[in-house]
Structures are given as C-alpha cells and as structure tokens.
Amino acid sequence: MKKALVLGCGLVGKTIALELSKEFSVTVLDSSEENLNKLKGNLRKIKGSALDTDLLKELSKDADIVCGALPGAIGFNVAQNILSMGKNYCDISFMPENFLDLGELAKERGVTAVFDMGIAPGISNLLVGRGASMLEEINEAKILVGGLPENPEPPFFYKAVFSPYDVLEEYTRPARIVKNGKEVIAEALDGLEEIEIPPIGRLEAFYTDGLRSLLFTIRAKDMEEKTLRYPGHTMIMRALREMGLFKEEYRAFTAKLLFPLWELNPDKGDRDITVMIVKMSGKREEERVNLVWEVFDRFDEESWTHSMARVTAFPCVTVAKMIAYGEIREKGVIPPEMLGMNEETYEKVIRELRSKGLKIKEKVIIERGG
C-alpha cells in the first residue's frame, strides 16, 4: 500500500487525509491536539510542528507523497524542507513567496512538486491552462471565485471555513493583475463590480492576488482574479482596513474578534457553497473563441463536509495520487496550469472531481472569420 504524509489537519487537511486514507496508509501531522482528535478513521496521528525538521524527516522517510495543508506563513519553509528530503509534494498553502523559486531544488532532488492545487488557485489555473492550450492568442482571462454561506446574515454576510490569516490576507495583499500585457499592482478590495450569478443571485467581486504562477506562465493581454462576496461585505472590510485592524501587529487581535462571528457551524444549520467562473477569450487560426467554465458545489450532507473543504481538498488529493502512482512523471515544480495544458491529465482531473459531485460545466463559443 502506498504511504502518504499530510501536514495540517484543519478543515481542508482533514478532508485530504480522509480521502487519501481510502487508498493510502496515511500519517497526519498537526500541532493542534484538538484538530487531531476530530479526525476519525484508520490514520496515524502525530502531534507536532511541521517546522520541526527532524520530526518531518522521520515521518516522511517512507512516504510516496507528502501533502501540505498549512497556513501560508510557514508553507514555503516547510515545502523547501520536504523537497530537500527528496519527497514528492502536493500543496495548497497560500504562501506569499513564489513557489516557482523551488523549481531547481525539486529537479536536483528528482522529485515532483505541484503547488496551489486547491480550487483557486488550483482548478482555476488548471482551466486557464486548458484554455491556453486551445488558443493561439489570449485576449482575456478572468477568474471569479467565492466560498459563501448559503444563507448570509448581516452585518458581514460571510462565514469563513479556512485559515483566519489567509482570509485576512485576501483583504490586504496587493493584487497582481495583467492589463495590456503588463503586470499591474492593484489594491486588494479594489475593482469592485456587481455580478448576477444564477442560482445565487447578485454578488460583488473585487481584486485579490490569486493569479499566482499564471503571471509567469501565461501570456494574455488582460488577466485578473476577483473574489466573490455578498453585497455589502466589501464596504465593511474596507472600513476595518482603513481603521488599521488588518495591519500585521493587530491581525491576531482582529482574527480573534471576527472569527467567532464568522464561524460556519453546520450543527447550527450553517451551510456553505462554492462558485467559480473562469472566462477566456482569444483567437485560434481565423476563429474568435470564447471559453467559459462554471464550477458549483454545496455542503455535503452525507459526509458532513464543508463545500470549501471539498473543492480545495479533492483537487489536491487527485493530483497527489497521480504523482504517487507515477502518472505525473515530470520532475521539478509544476504549476497547475501546466497540468491543464496536457489534455489527458486535464480530462482525468476533471473526471475525478465530477465523480466526487463537483459540478463543472464547460462552454466553447466559436465565431468564424476572425
């Protein structure tokens, strides 16, 4: 039986571990005993820090694949250690560093590493890569994505299901976008627009720094990612930011205030949904081509799993298994969009996600005559 090590046992890490345990012998490492106690099933649970290199080396020595589901603040350092140990890696940590910088290390150690393999970044990149393989010239690539409560309540109209610091990072980290072929820095929460998305209704979208590796791998005239929230949420977040509550020195305090109010509690009837739309337009030979992907998911009642945990964990698990089984053989750091450019890999990932209940629709509109 193949062996896997999962680093982090929050909502997403827990789902990754449980999914892998259906086929793999799984060890889970987390510094929180509470998180580990919530994890049921035939898994080996170890309390400790992923920054403990001796412990990491011991736990990973027999692993065919290591999966990272850690806070972004420590994601890069841990990934660097894992690759130095000669281990294959699949990661969802929203690290501020450029993971492409680890490419040479991964090649030197002869391992495969796929980063940002969640929903967005992740499946969003995969779809853009697929679109890039279908177009000779890209005019626009636009990603709209949001994890939302099914029944929003004032004043925030929001519930959070992943790392508090990574949520606040969306509201503070400057967003890198592409305009007229050049990288532009936009303020987080800027670019506000209203969008009607069936079956949810009216939502607002604002810039977030979610293009990640797409900035270096995809050539497009215009490219951007925006986060979706219910109307009114952005104005409140802007006010909190202007008050200084998102500054690094106050962020822990702000998280303690906000997250009890933002907690998504299924036992109290809370449910979450995830929606993502990826739009691309460009040219192929003498054709103008428009591509649209729609992704939608709901809280799973049978497994009692948050939608955001599902849509983030399932892509990671799918690719992690492909690496472990030798279906992805390229060594080095592979951004998700590069997987999307390989038709066979793309089809397998999408097929696997659909088998898990994720609704993914693809639409291709072709206009003849340039």
Can you characterise this structure?
The chain has 13 helices and 16 strands. It has 370 residues and is α/β, with parallel strands linked by helices. The protein has helices spanning 11-20, 33-38, 53-60, 72-84, 103-109, 123-134, 164-170, 214-217, 233-242, 248-262, 307-324, 336-340, 343-355, and strands at residues 3-7, 25-30, 44-47, 65-68, 89-91, 112-114, 137-149, 175-179, 182-186, 193-197, 201-207, 222-229, 272-284, 287-298, 332-334, 359-367. The longest helix has 18 residues, at 307-324. It is 35% helix and 28% strand. The strands form three sheets. The chain has a seven-stranded parallel sheet, sandwiched between helices. A seven-stranded mixed sheet has the order 10-11-12-7-13-14-16, with helices on one face. Strands 8-9 form a two-stranded antiparallel sheet. Helix 1 (11-20) packs across helix 11 (307-324). It folds into two domains: 3-118 and 310-357, NAD(P)-binding Rossmann-like Domain (Rossmann fold); 123-307, 2-Layer Sandwich (Dihydrodipicolinate Reductase, domain 2), CATH 3.30.360.10.
